[in-house]
Amino acid sequence: MGKKGVPIVKIAPNETYGYGGVSCCCLRCCTCIHIEFLKTLPGAVKLVEVVINFIIQGLLINYGLLYHAQLGSAFEAALTTSSACFFNSGVLLVCYMVSEKSYKLIHSSYFEIIFNVIACFMCMSSASCLGFATKMFLWPLYVITPGFDVFPAMTAAYFLSATVGVIYGVDIYLALRLRKGS
Question: In this predicted model, what pLDDT tens digit does every residue of 108-132 receive, in sequence order?
């Protein structure tokens, strides 16, 4: 109650999570999960990070594992980077979808900013190393061996790794903008 017993009416901000869950006919299921977060720019960015890292990991494991000796430490660095980024971004995405408070506290925190900076750097460096190793060691095999599908897969992996590095850069900007606004 406000002054002299007058009730205080607070208007919810436009960026509120609203009703959580998934609507199914006339019921709402899983109300603790807020799918609306994925419709926001930070939610879409985090989802794209998770999906691209998952694809990179799949390409590396399905196609590059047999040729890890030729690719050397570039393969291991790319796999480690994509796995770590997939896991951490996935955990953050789940936290943000479950709790608006955790999104506001974590996304503008130093943890999120430092993680995104490290992830951006690691993705860009692993993309350049994997690109060099792919061109240097797999290109000759691709030219002389018919049906050699490892080269296109590793090329896609390092292009996607560079792309997700840029997306982590966008996430750095969003986190810094949120931090400055708070």
Answer: 889 999 999 999 999 999 999 999 9
In DSSP terms, 23 is beta-bridged to: 28
Residue 180: closest CA among 101, 172, 103 = 172
Cβ partners under 8 Å of residue 114, min gap 6: none
Q: Chain centroid to CA 26: how far?
A: 33
CA distance 4 to 32: 37
Q: How far apart are the C-alpha atoms of 124 and 43, rounded to whole Å?
A: 22
d(CA 40, CA 57): 26
Q: How many degrees, rounded to 5, is the angle at CA 113 between CA 110 and CA 119?
A: 135
Extract the tokens encoding 151: 């080269």
Tell me the C-alpha distance between 127 and 154, whole Å: 10
pLDDT at 107: 83
What pLDDT, in 10s, does the model give residues 22-78? 566 666 566 677 788 899 999 999 999 999 999 999 999 999 999 999 999 999 999
